[in-house]
UniProtKB/TrEMBL annotation:
PROSITE patterns: RNASE_H_2. This is Ribonuclease HII. Keywords: Cytoplasm, Endonuclease, Hydrolase, Manganese, Metal-binding, Nuclease. It comes from Streptomyces hydrogenans. Belongs to the RNase HII family. The gene is rnhB. Signal peptide: none annotated.
């Protein structure tokens, strides 16, 4: 099924309405996984014509996606990646972990963007960033699509490398990238979670043998009291 190629329409709008000169597209991968980090890519592309076939990474075959990521890394004006670890996800919750990973990516760019195009409908970045959320931005916006492909390929490669780690043998990370799958579930039930698993995830509720390992994240109020600090913004 053919897809409309992404455009610079949103970026042009941001430039015209806000005066932004540098606009970054931001997308994440790994949000729904049981294991591994959540990875965010921030990409700046300018208004140049993108490589042929660019679209949401999930709509591209793995082979083409890998080739396209190499092209994109040379083609973009700049890009940077940020991650939040499974432990950070357990401690902070996914929304705050996404923000942490995104800020790390944006801070990794050589120049701070004037505005950010964020895939989806929820602004998990917030102030002081100037954010425009775009539903299916990874299909419609060039910079977000580029970020989508780079993030997906980088995280998949990292998860595939875990297949050679002793603790992770049998979990099928090279095929499932830490997402739910029959192989992943069977290995979890037999072997229990690895140091790369998210222990606050509900999959442990269905595994009586390992349920005692589940971590319960403190509420914002409890965390503030425990740390002796003031209650901050709960992302």
């Amino acid at each position: 099924m053919p897809y409309e190629p992404p455009t610079h329409t949103v970026e042009r709008s941001l430039r015209a309405t806000t005066g932004a000169k540098i606009v970054a597209g931001v997308d994440e991968v790994g949000r729904g996984a049981w294991a591994g980090p959540v990875t965010v890519c921030a990409a700046v592309t300018g208004l140049r014509r993108p490589p042929e076939g660019l679209t949401d990474s999930k709509l591209i075959t793995p082979k083409r996606r890998t080739t396209l990521a190499v092209e994109l890394e040379r083609w973009v004006t700049a890009y940077a990646l940020g991650e939040a670890s499974p432990q950070e996800i357990d401690e902070l919750g996914m929304t705050a972990a996404l923000r942490l990973a995104a800020v790390r990516a944006l801070d990794g760019l050589p120049v701070r963007p004037d505005a950010v195009i964020l895939d989806g409908k929820h602004d998990y970045l917030g102030t002081p960033w100037r954010v425009r959320t775009v539903i299916k931005g990874d299909q419609s916006c060039v910079a977000v699509a580029a970020a989508s492909v780079i993030a997906k390929v980088r995280r998949d490669a990292m998860m595939a490398e875990l297949d050679s780690v002793a603790d992770c043998t049998g979990f099928g990370f090279a095929a499932n990238a830490g997402y739910p799958s029959p192989v992943h579930k069977a290995a979890l039930e037999e072997l229990g979670p690895t140091p790369y698993h998210r222990l606050s995830w509900s999959y442990l509720d269905a595994m009586p043998r390992w349920r005692h390992l589940k971590k319960v994240r403190l509420s914002a109020e409890a965390a503030a009291l425990e740390s002796g600090g003031q209650l901050g913004f709960d992302f």
